[in-house]
Amino acid sequence: MRPNALGRTIAGLVAVAGLAAGSVATAGTSFAATATTTQTAAAQPAAVAATQNFGLTTAEAKNVQEFLADYWGYTGAIDGQLGTNSWKAFQRCLATYWGYTGAIDGDPGTNTIKALQRLLKDDYGYTGAIDGIAGAGTRAAFKRFAA
């Protein structure tokens, strides 16, 4: 009797695997494209939502957020995490005074960093190139800004 039960179990597993394979094989390309698009769209907001403090401590980042709340429309939490909303407010500042021409999207990318470097060069001792790379000199000047 035991071999018969084992045979039925194996036959059942093969049948389930066959049904699953058949379902995938008959799925249209629109289904596959929709699944891929959904996954891509879900991955993008996570990347933008990440915080980027560029070496600031939580206390220093809170100082920056307080500045942004006082002058640039930041309404988020003063939590010391420079996330999307903090960077949107900072981009408004940088667009007004420091030559930032990109989208107000909260992504501290190359153009945001270049504008930040112009601000830091003018008032906070940054002596490096305006290259959009947040290296050691940019981070040190950003700390002075945040102090």
Short structural description:
This protein is mainly α and 147 residues long.
Tell me what the structure shows.
With 147 residues, this protein is mainly α. Helices cover 67% and strands 0% of the residues. It contains 6 helices and no strands. The N and C termini lie far apart (80 Å). The relative contact order is 0.10. Mean pLDDT is 79; it is low at 1-48.
Shape: globular
Largest sheet: none
- State Rg: 26 Å
The number of E-state strands comes to: 0
Which H/E pattern describes the elements? HHHHHH
Q: Enumerate the spans where pLDDT stays under 50 for 5 or more consecutive residues.
A: 1-48
> In terms of structural class, how would the helical and strand content be classed?
mainly alpha
Helix tally? Answer: 6
Identify the quaternary structure here: single chain
* Termini gap: 80 Å
User: Could you report the average pLDDT, rounded to the nearest whole number?
Assistant: 79
The fraction of residues assigned to DSSP E strands is under 5%
Helix content: 55-70%
